[in-house]
Amino acid sequence: MTNSSSEFDLIAEFFAPLATSPGAFGLKDDVALVAARAGHDLVVTTDTIVAGVDFFANDPPASIARKALRVNLSDLAAKGAEPFGYLLSLMLPKEIGRPFLKDFAAGLESDQTEFAVSLLGGDMSSTPGPPAISITAFGHIPVGRIVRRNGAREGDLVFVTGTIGDSGGGLALLENQAVSTSVETRTRLIARYRVPEPRVTFAPALRAASAAIDVSDGLLADLGHIADASGVRMELQAERIPLSPFLRDLWGDGVDAIARAATAGDDYEIAFTARSPTADARTAVTRIGKVTKGSGIVLLDAEGGEITVPRKGFVHF
């Protein structure tokens, strides 16, 4: 850090106020106590975001914090789980100072209020590399109701929440790979990249699905994981994939734009399979395809021809 404060001083100042759960012990112990909820399973997930890969080092600290938390809440929602707490590990260059931590903690505080979660503990360390934030999130789900990847069956329909590709459009704008003359389009798409909207309220309705996954690496890539785990084939209809008016303003609505949106990633919508529509009044859901016999995933045009895509989504390695 840019001053002589110890790790413990910084934790006490910025993060202990976020540890509102009694089991967090005010962040003054080495562990947290997580109470099991009667009749529920405990669901655990972890994700790390790294500067230069998942966010820009000059992004607002509050938005970095919110993205780090929200990508984990998205994983829980895609399993049908209700979030309640999280662990936070920060790996920060020594030159990062108090203003960053103050804004970062404020972003977490805002999301804790919105999603009814609490900081339970974590770790803080310096690094000679880029900033990295790792979060482990915890949720509850009624016993035996978790929605896994391996439940899709021939005859199921394929659905997705919200719209696809907005985050990819925002990233393209930030990287100057796209230009928009609309201030609103630029603002909306960049916001989707920096601060995703996890479908937490949709989780209870999702428990009726046969399989589900959150869209992080790309719609085609992530639905491909369901197809592989379930031993089925998925056929997606390109014209059904929902694009926002802002993304259409940026990329258009042709086949190339749809294919780009379906492989861009970082959407944090939920893609799922079910025999019939699974709905929630607060969440838009679109049927985009069907599950058939076979293997793999294909994107089809209006005539039923396969649309070739160079890659199905983001690849880390």
Give a structural overview.
This protein has a 6-stranded mixed beta sheet with strand order 6-8-5-9-7-10, sandwiched between helices. It is of the alpha+beta class and 317 residues long. The chain is built from 9 helices and 10 strands. It has 2 domains: 7-142, PurM-like, N-terminal domain (60s Ribosomal Protein L30, Chain: A); 157-300, PurM-like C-terminal domain (Phosphoribosyl-aminoimidazole Synthetase, Chain A, domain 2, Alpha-Beta Complex), CATH 3.90.650.10. 47% of the residues are buried. Helix 3 (98-115) links the parallel strand 2 and strand 3. The two termini are 31 Å apart. The model has no long low-confidence stretch (mean pLDDT 94). It has helices spanning 7-15, 61-77, 98-115, 166-174, 183-194, 203-206, 219-230, 245-251, 255-264; strands spanning 40-50, 82-92, 118-126, 132-142, 157-161, 211-214, 233-237, 270-274, 285-292, 296-300.
Main attributes?
317 residues, 60s Ribosomal Protein L30, Chain: A, Phosphoribosyl-aminoimidazole Synthetase, Chain A, domain 2, 2 domains, 6-stranded mixed β-sheet, 4-stranded mixed β-sheet, 10 strands, globular
Q: Topology, please?
A:
Blueprint: H1 7-15, E1 40-50, H2 61-77, E2 82-92, H3 98-115, E3 118-126, E4 132-142, E5 157-161, H4 166-174, H5 183-194, H6 203-206, E6 211-214, H7 219-230, E7 233-237, H8 245-251, H9 255-264, E8 270-274, E9 285-292, E10 296-300
Parallel strand pairs: 2-3, 7-10
Antiparallel strand pairs: 1-4, 2-4, 5-8, 5-9, 6-8, 7-9
